[in-house]
């Protein structure tokens, strides 16, 4: 094997890198186990412990140290379905935006166009602004849009003579700004949660924002915080020198309190010690800790003597003669990011609250300064407006844009106010700049976070202000968007929501882990029993494969979901595919009388095209799933793609290294037992000869299946039809029909109720208030649900999880699913055309893949309501269909590769193509059956032990693998015969003709 040394080096490097990436997960799990042991079931206590550890170093590698927060950011993150929490999709109301930009006109046609565009947007791929313009032109063809949007506030962009195209361009730009601003506001709000591994994504090309909050339990707080309008305010500020004495008093009071705590805890230090120094500080701050473990080190003594200033550094600067002095301005201190939570706890302490006057508010900056990326600024603002609040509201802003200072050519922001705001702003700025030696700053605050606090240089009479400072271009863009938030109070509403309780999450984890372990064991045992010592070598590669897969996922910060675990389980089955191809080829080479060394070399060489073709087609489907899927499906796609890469690496390189080592040691290498050596070796089934009977059987099944589809239809999941779904667990077994009847009566419409796993657990789906996504509608639906569920007397229940999908989202998901399926077939057909250079091969591969998809759809329609588990058509089902398509082509290209090899042999060029195709099928039959069996084994384990959440998903793949095996053997390759017509394998070349003529005996 060429480059053996390089490959060994690469294996070592990848192994070390994966160990490093996975080590963070082990570290954080230990901290969390310590927290659970300390809290003894008290969730608040456990959270306080973890909060206290956020800034503590928990992982010391010598050359690098990591705090718990940093280690948490590098661990394998668990998705909502494994950890519990909330997943919401928010939609920015562009209807509200357009109406506000036109100053809420009363024109009937204008408002009708807004409503029509809103209705059409639920079933259209076009943007809302484009739909609104279309509808308005239909209703008012002779009225220009400028007549509504050429307002004083929009005068910089829209003139009375602006064309409709110019106005549409303005609306598109404002819509983009509103969406971007909502994204930034939501991201800042989420950061306040302190959620580990939050995920927020702007769905490009849409007005939607996807948010995942693992571990969140206060659902009402999340909904309230995320859906609140952005609150832009201007606050007067204090000078640092005015606030420092107060902070000194706070520091002294905390020190005195901690000193008393130390005396108390020293008396019990021998009997009650905690693992964290911060535990005692939490006790002082009301976190209900039990004791304080105080070290005698000087650092801890300093922390006790100056608890506040130990983590909040006062804002200082160098004065005359380079002497330190308090820095001018409203910044009163700096804290490390990891210490901000601790500072907040100090400031919330009852003793401290008595010291801080009511007319002082301390607010953090929005993000660290680039020069000090680990520090956050603390500002002091002065409640001086109405109701002791801000001095001015953000609703007076008419526009803001990022600009450049013409004098210094540095980035700045230009801010415009309406006439009312300009008058008030003139008064405020005149007062702030009255004393030339003591100019005040005005803090720009959004949602309680300071974005900027520029010092007022003079009175601003016309409402046009320039904000300069140490800005980057990105800073000015962000600040301009923030200022626009006051002008455009566009709301973002939750249109899709999934709430997973921690109980369901833990059950999902247990089910996923059990299925993965059992599936791994099944594969390992089978390979040993079938391939002898070769099986042991393959098993080492499989173990490395799982290790590399998890390590790479950790290094990429990929989120592990339940479908992701299914992807791992599926990878276990397909990981042996390359090994099976290699081993079957080695057995063929041994059958030709070659030595074991030569057979191994030739086996790897001849199996390589089939390995690459089969894995690349599956990888392409994974890519399509990644781009078209969302939520947990992304986890499945990510796992599938990474698993294919690691499978190729381990099967091709690691097994080869082991074989080379065994040959060097003189070990005997066997790839079969006597009983398995000749399995299907000389198979000669008449697949081609009986192909028409097979075509007829498949066609008949599909025709019958379409009758079921058109008469019975499908059970659509909530993400395909919209509505709300709840998973409910009763204490005792229930009568399904009784629950359904009660809920039908309560909701006043048909409710879908299905047993979900055990006979005391149901999944309820209702379309009641499907078009309403407000909090009030959510509460109404939940109230009716509880009313119906509670009618079963003497049987308590618990709502484990919930999911809400608006009709717009449902239609979008369905469209993406259809596109994903069509695109997958096209991509695979194009790839096969490139690889095999004949359209017949592409079509022969495409027809069976469509056949497989149809068979699974038919079975889901036929068996729905008959089998004791859910067969909903949802995103998981789409992922299963695409996986089956990939697997079907995976099998097919192996036969095609062997057929191409045979067609290149001169001795087969005069054979009938049907005989050659049949031979190719039979010679690869052993590989096809063995690979399918390994995948069927692991998918059966996933189906049995994987849990109810993905039972339908695993069933679809399990059945799909069986169908795909059938179609690749009985349909794909035989179709080549019919598509190429009655002909020989290949017409003889001119050279072959001459050779044959030369061999003829000479005539006398």
From TrEMBL:
<keyword id="KW-0472">Membrane</keyword>
<feature type="transmembrane region" description="Helical">
    <location>
        <begin position="953"/>
        <end position="977"/>
    </location>
</feature>
<dbReference type="InterPro" id="IPR022813">
    <property type="entry name" value="SecD/SecF_arch_bac"/>
</dbReference>
<feature type="transmembrane region" description="Helical">
    <location>
        <begin position="511"/>
        <end position="531"/>
    </location>
</feature>
<feature type="domain" description="Protein translocase subunit SecDF P1">
    <location>
        <begin position="180"/>
        <end position="236"/>
    </location>
</feature>
<keyword id="KW-1003">Cell membrane</keyword>
<dbReference type="InterPro" id="IPR005665">
    <property type="entry name" value="SecF_bac"/>
</dbReference>
<comment type="function">
    <text>Part of the Sec protein translocase complex. Interacts with the SecYEG preprotein conducting channel. SecDF uses the proton motive force (PMF) to complete protein translocation after the ATP-dependent function of SecA.</text>
</comment>
<comment type="similarity">
    <text>Belongs to the SecD/SecF family. SecF subfamily.</text>
</comment>
<keyword id="KW-0812">Transmembrane</keyword>
<keyword id="KW-0813">Transport</keyword>
<keyword id="KW-1133">Transmembrane helix</keyword>
<comment type="similarity">
    <text>Belongs to the SecD/SecF family. SecD subfamily.</text>
</comment>
<keyword id="KW-0653">Protein transport</keyword>
<comment type="subunit">
    <text>Forms a complex with SecF. Part of the essential Sec protein translocation apparatus which comprises SecA, SecYEG and auxiliary proteins SecDF. Other proteins may also be involved.</text>
</comment>
<dbReference type="Pfam" id="PF02355">
    <property type="entry name" value="SecD_SecF_C"/>
</dbReference>
<dbReference type="InterPro" id="IPR022646">
    <property type="entry name" value="SecD/SecF_CS"/>
</dbReference>
<comment type="subunit">
    <text>Forms a complex with SecD. Part of the essential Sec protein translocation apparatus which comprises SecA, SecYEG and auxiliary proteins SecDF. Other proteins may also be involved.</text>
</comment>
<dbReference type="InterPro" id="IPR048631">
    <property type="entry name" value="SecD_1st"/>
</dbReference>
<feature type="transmembrane region" description="Helical">
    <location>
        <begin position="565"/>
        <end position="586"/>
    </location>
</feature>
<feature type="transmembrane region" description="Helical">
    <location>
        <begin position="929"/>
        <end position="947"/>
    </location>
</feature>
<feature type="transmembrane region" description="Helical">
    <location>
        <begin position="875"/>
        <end position="899"/>
    </location>
</feature>
<feature type="transmembrane region" description="Helical">
    <location>
        <begin position="817"/>
        <end position="834"/>
    </location>
</feature>
<dbReference type="Pfam" id="PF22599">
    <property type="entry name" value="SecDF_P1_head"/>
</dbReference>
<dbReference type="InterPro" id="IPR022645">
    <property type="entry name" value="SecD/SecF_bac"/>
</dbReference>
<protein>
    <recommendedName>
        <fullName>Multifunctional fusion protein</fullName>
    </recommendedName>
</protein>
<dbReference type="InterPro" id="IPR048634">
    <property type="entry name" value="SecD_SecF_C"/>
</dbReference>
<feature type="transmembrane region" description="Helical">
    <location>
        <begin position="538"/>
        <end position="559"/>
    </location>
</feature>
<feature type="transmembrane region" description="Helical">
    <location>
        <begin position="694"/>
        <end position="711"/>
    </location>
</feature>
<dbReference type="InterPro" id="IPR055344">
    <property type="entry name" value="SecD_SecF_C_bact"/>
</dbReference>
<dbReference type="Pfam" id="PF21760">
    <property type="entry name" value="SecD_1st"/>
</dbReference>
<feature type="transmembrane region" description="Helical">
    <location>
        <begin position="7"/>
        <end position="27"/>
    </location>
</feature>
<dbReference type="InterPro" id="IPR005791">
    <property type="entry name" value="SecD"/>
</dbReference>
<dbReference type="InterPro" id="IPR054384">
    <property type="entry name" value="SecDF_P1_head"/>
</dbReference>
<feature type="domain" description="Protein export membrane protein SecD/SecF C-terminal">
    <location>
        <begin position="491"/>
        <end position="663"/>
    </location>
</feature>
<dbReference type="Pfam" id="PF07549">
    <property type="entry name" value="Sec_GG"/>
</dbReference>
<keyword id="KW-0811">Translocation</keyword>
<feature type="domain" description="SecDF P1 head subdomain">
    <location>
        <begin position="385"/>
        <end position="489"/>
    </location>
</feature>
<feature type="transmembrane region" description="Helical">
    <location>
        <begin position="841"/>
        <end position="863"/>
    </location>
</feature>
<feature type="domain" description="Protein export membrane protein SecD/SecF C-terminal">
    <location>
        <begin position="793"/>
        <end position="980"/>
    </location>
</feature>
<feature type="region of interest" description="Disordered">
    <location>
        <begin position="982"/>
        <end position="1004"/>
    </location>
</feature>
<feature type="transmembrane region" description="Helical">
    <location>
        <begin position="607"/>
        <end position="628"/>
    </location>
</feature>
């Amino acid at each position: 094997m060429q480059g053996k040394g390089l490959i060994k080096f690469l294996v070592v490097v990848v192994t070390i890198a994966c160990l490093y990436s996975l080590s963070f997960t082990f570290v954080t799990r230990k901290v969390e186990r310590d927290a659970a042991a300390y809290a003894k079931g008290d969730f608040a206590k456990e959270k306080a412990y973890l909060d206290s550890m956020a800034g503590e170093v928990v992982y010391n590698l010598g050359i690098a140290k990591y705090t718990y927060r940093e280690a948490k950011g590098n661990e394998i993150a668990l998705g909502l379905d494994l950890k519990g929490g909330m997943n919401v999709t928010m939609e920015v109301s562009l209807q509200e935006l357009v109406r506000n930009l036109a100053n809420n006109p009363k024109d009937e046609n204008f408002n009708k166009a807004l409503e029509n565009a809103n209705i059409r947007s639920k079933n259209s791929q076009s943007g809302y602004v484009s739909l609104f313009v279309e509808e308005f032109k239909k209703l008012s063809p002779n009225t220009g849009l400028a007549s509504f949007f050429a307002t004083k506030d929009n005068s910089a962009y829209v003139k009375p003579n602006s064309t409709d195209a110019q106005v549409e361009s303005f609306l598109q730009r404002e819509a983009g700004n509103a969406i971007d601003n909502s994204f930034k506001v939501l991201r800042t709000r989420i950061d306040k949660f302190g959620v580990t591994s939050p995920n927020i994504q702007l769905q490009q090309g849409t007005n939607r924002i996807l948010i995942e909050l693992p571990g969140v339990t206060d659902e009402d707080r999340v909904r309230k915080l995320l859906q609140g309008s952005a609150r832009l305010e201007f606050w007067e500020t204090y000078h640092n020198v005015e606030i420092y004495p107060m902070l000194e008093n706070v520091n002294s009071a905390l020190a005195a309190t901690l000193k008393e705590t130390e005396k108390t805890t020293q008396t019990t230090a021998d009997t009650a010690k905690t693992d964290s120094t911060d535990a005692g500080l939490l006790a002082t701050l009301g976190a209900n800790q039990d004791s304080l473990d105080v070290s005698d080190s000087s650092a801890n003594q300093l922390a006790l003597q100056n608890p506040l200033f130990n983590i909040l550094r006062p804002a200082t600067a160098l004065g005359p003669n380079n002497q330190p002095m308090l820095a001018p301005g409203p910044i009163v201190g700096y804290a490390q990011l990891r210490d901000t939570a601790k500072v907040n706890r100090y400031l919330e302490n009852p003793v401290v609250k008595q010291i801080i006057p009511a007319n002082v508010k301390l607010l953090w900056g929005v993000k660290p300064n680039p020069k000090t990326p680990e520090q956050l600024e603390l500002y002091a603002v002065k409640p001086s407006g109405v109701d002791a609040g801000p001095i001015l509201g953000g609703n007076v802003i008419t526009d803001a844009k990022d600009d450049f200072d013409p004098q210094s050519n540095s980035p700045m922001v230009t801010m415009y106010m309406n006439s009312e705001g300009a008058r008030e702003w003139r008064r405020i700025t005149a007062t702030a700049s009255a004393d030339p030696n003591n100019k005040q700053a005005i803090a720009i605050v959004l949602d309680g976070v300071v974005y900027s606090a520029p010092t007022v240089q003079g009175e601003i009479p016309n409402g046009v202000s320039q904000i300069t400072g140490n800005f980057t271009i990105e800073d000015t863009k962000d600040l301009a968007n923030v200022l626009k938030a006051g002008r455009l109070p566009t709301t973002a509403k939750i249109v899709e929501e999934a709430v997973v309780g921690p109980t369901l999450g833990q059950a999902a984890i247990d089910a996923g882990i059990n299925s993965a372990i059992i599936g791994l064991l099944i594969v390992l045992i089978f390979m040993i029993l079938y391939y002898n010592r070769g099986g042991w070598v393959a098993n080492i590669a499989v173990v490395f494969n799982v290790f590399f897969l998890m390590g790479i996922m950790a290094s990429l910060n990929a989120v592990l979901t339940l479908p992701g675990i299914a992807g791992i389980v599926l990878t276990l089955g397909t990981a042996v595919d390359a090994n099976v191809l290699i081993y079957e080829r080695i057995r063929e080479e041994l059958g030709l009388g070659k030595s074991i060394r030569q057979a191994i070399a030739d086996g790897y060489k001849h199996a390589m095209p089939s390995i690459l073709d089969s894995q690349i087609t599956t990888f392409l489907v994974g890519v399509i799933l990644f781009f078209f899927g969302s939520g947990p499906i992304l986890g499945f796609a990510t796992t599938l793609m990474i698993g294919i890469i690691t499978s190729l690496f381990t099967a091709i390189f690691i097994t080869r290294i082991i074989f080379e080592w065994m040959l060097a040691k003189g070990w005997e290498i066997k790839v079969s037992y006597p009983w398995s050596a000749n399995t299907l070796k000389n198979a000669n089934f008449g697949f081609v000869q009986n192909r028409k009977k097979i075509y007829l059987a498949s066609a008949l099944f599909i025709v019958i299946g379409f009758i079921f589809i058109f008469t019975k239809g499908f059970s659509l999941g909530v993400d395909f039809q919209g509505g709300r779904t709840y998973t409910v667990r009763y204490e005792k077994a229930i009568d399904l029909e009784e629950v359904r009847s009660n809920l039908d009566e309560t909701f006043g419409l048909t409710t879908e109720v299905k047993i979900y796993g055990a006979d005391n657990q149901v999944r309820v789906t209702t379309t009641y208030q499907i078009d309403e996504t407000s909090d009030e509608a959510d509460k109404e639906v939940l109230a009716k649900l509880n009313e119906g569920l509670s009618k079963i007397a003497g049987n308590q229940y618990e709502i484990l999880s919930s999911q809400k999908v608006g009709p717009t989202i449902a239609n979008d998901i369905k469209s993406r699913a259809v596109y994903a399926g069509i695109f997958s077939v096209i991509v695979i057909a194009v790839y096969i055309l490139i690889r095999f250079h004949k359209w017949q091969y592409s079509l022969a591969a495409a027809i069976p893949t469509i056949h497989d998809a149809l068979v699974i759809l038919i079975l889901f329609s036929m068996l729905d309501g008959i089998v004791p588990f859910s067969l909903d058509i949802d995103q998981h089902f789409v992922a299963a269909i695409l996986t089956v398509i990939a697997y079907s082509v995976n099998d097919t290209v192996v036969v095609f590769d062997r057929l191409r090899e045979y067609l290149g042999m001169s001795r087969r060029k005069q054979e009938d193509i049907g005989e050659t195709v049949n031979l190719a099928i039979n010679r690869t039959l052993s590989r096809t059956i063995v690979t399918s069996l390994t995948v069927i084994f692991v998918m059966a384990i996933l189906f049995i032990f994987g849990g109810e959440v993905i039972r339908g998903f695993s069933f679809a793949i399990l059945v799909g693998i069986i169908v795909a095996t059938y179609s690749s053997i009985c349909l794909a390759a035989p179709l080549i015969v019919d598509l190429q017509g009655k002909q020989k394998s290949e017409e003889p070349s001119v050279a072959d003709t001459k050779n044959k003529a030369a061999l003829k005996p000479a005539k006398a």
